[in-house]
Amino acid sequence: MNEIERYTPHRTKNFVAPEARIDKTPKVFEMLPPEVRPVEFHAPVVLRSVAVSETDRAVGFTISTTGLAAIGGVGGVLLAVVGWQVPVLSVPALAIFFVIAALVWATAWLFYSAASADGIGLLSVLLHYRLLRHEQKERLRRIERMTEDDR
Would you list the domain boundaries of the chain? Predict the structure, then answer.
C-alpha cells in the first residue's frame, strides 16, 4: 500500500466520540481565603536601632578623611620633590603637604555634607527653587507672547 490514506476519525480504531449532552448549568465554587499562619522563627529575634549624634558623625568623618588627606599630602610632596626638585625637608614641601591635605579635606567635607540628611534636604530645596525659577520664566514668556498677539 504505497498510497497515503486520508485520516478521518471514523476510520481509526481508538476514536471516542464526544458526549452528546453537555451540562450547561452554572457551577458555583466557594473560594476560601488562604490560610494565614504566623511565621515561626527558630532563632531569637533581636531588635536593634542605631542612634547617632552629630559628635559621632564628626568623629567618623575625621577617621575616614584623615588617612585620605595624609595620603594626598604625601603624594603631593613626592610629586613636588621628584617633579620640581623641591627639598624634602623645607617650608615649601610642608606648605604643599598642608595645602593638598586641606583641599582633600574640603572636597571630602563637601561630599559628606551633600550626602547627609541635611545636605539632601538642602539640595532638594535648591533644585525645587531652580524648577520654580524656570517655570516662572516660561510662564512670563508665554504671557508676553499672549499680550503681543492681542495687540
Answer: 54-115, 117-151
